[in-house]
Structure formats: C-alpha cells, structure tokens
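Exam revision sheet. Question 4 asks you to relate a sequence to its structure. Input first:
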Amino acid sequence: MNINNLASFKHCLLMVLTVAFLTTAHFSSANQEQADSLQSVIASAEQGDANAQFKLATIYDAGDGVTQDFREAAKWYYLAAAQGLVDAQMELATMYEFGRGLRQDYVLAHMWANVAAAQAKADELADDLRQRIANKMPRRDVAKAQKMAKNCLANNYQNCIPEALWKIHKWKLWKIHQWKVWQTIKLPDVNWKFWEKEQSGEALEP
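Answer key, structure tokens:
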C-alpha cells in the first residue's frame, strides 16, 4: 500500500468512526430524553393527573419505550376513566371487548362504551363503539350493561367495576409503586364485599 492509499484509508476510517460516534451520541441523547419524559409522565400519573394516566396507559399499550404490558395499560386506563376521561373509557371498553389485558366481558365493555357515549354525545366514535359491542350481545345483557352505566354515571364513575383495578393490579401498586403511590393516587372507592366474592369465585351481580 503506497503512502497516498494509506492516507486515504486513514481518512475513510476516521470518517467512519466519527459518524459512528455521532450516531451513538445522538441515540444515547434521544434515549435519555425519552426516559426523562417517561418519568415525568409517571410522576404526573401517580399524582392523579387523568391526562397523564391516559398517556401512560397508551405507552404501556403500545410498548412505546417500555415493555408492552396490557394489564398495566388497563390499570392506567381505568384510573383515567374513573375521573371521567372519555378517551380512557373508550379504550377500557375496547380492552374488555377483545380481552386485552382484562378478562373478555361484553357487558363491562358495553357499560364503559355507554358511559363514554353519554358524555360525548356528539362523538360518533363512542356511539359506534357502543353499537359494535351491542351487536355481539343478547338483549338482556345490553339492558344489564345500560343499567350498570346509568349507575356508574350517577355515582361519578366510582365503584363501576372495581375488579378492573383490584383483581389484577392491587399487588402491583404495592410492589412496584409502594405506599407513597397509595397516598398520592386518588383511587376509586372499593367495594370490598365485591372484591372478596370475586376472589372466592362466587357468582356476582353488579
């Protein structure tokens, strides 16, 4: 290899290493920004911000920068839905409809779709969702879901379906977020009798 070729090779190698370094630095910076943003969302969600809870739910739902976790997504959708956030109520209805992260249950799916549609009267998406779920159900189950939705709305979204949160996530709230989260998140009131029956496998009536 002559001197000119050697100089050219060194120049090319230097350029490759420079590009590799800059690319690594860029991705490292982007990853750090994403991590900081996620921590900010988590902090706001734990403080009870419904919009942050919904955003965190979508992050877990899509696996955006975190391990995809439908159960964790359902928890945060529920917390936002219990504060009256229509988008969260619709997503929760969809998760019940398809059994994604939650036990498939058309009655509960229809109930949340009904609650969302009652608030978003001009939103065709909520109404279409409710109708789509209703088409999969017998009339008596639709009537049951409508009654549950009416009760949910009358009680300001409290005690609508406590098992959505407690059956799946109670232990996670203690283990992952510890007691400080328990103090900062405004959780829906819990029907402990309902919870105990759910755990024992007894037949339940809402």
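Marking note for examiners. Residues 168-185, 194-206 have pLDDT under 50 and may be disordered.
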